[in-house]
Design goal:
mainly alpha; two-stranded parallel ribbon; 58% helix
């Protein structure tokens, strides 16, 4: 489990803003429950719990500038 600042990755950041964004848009249009709040807890509760803790205990480099 990561505590503190996440390691920044330019490659992953660009990927999330281009291909990742397009993929999510297509999935959201085709799959009824995709992207809805709380669906992660139904699909994979163990992963959802891990992600909840991870996002509360780590922060991004960009969060420092907010």
């Amino acid at each position: 489990m990561k505590f503190g600042m996440r390691t920044p990755s330019l490659k992953k950041s660009i990927s999330a803003r281009t291909k990742g964004r397009a993929t999510r848009a297509v999935k959201k249009a085709l799959i009824p429950g995709y992207g809805k709040k709380g669906m992660g807890w139904i699909k994979d509760p163990k992963r959802a719990a891990y992600n909840k803790v991870y996002n509360k205990t780590s922060f991004s480099l960009w969060d420092l500038f907010k």
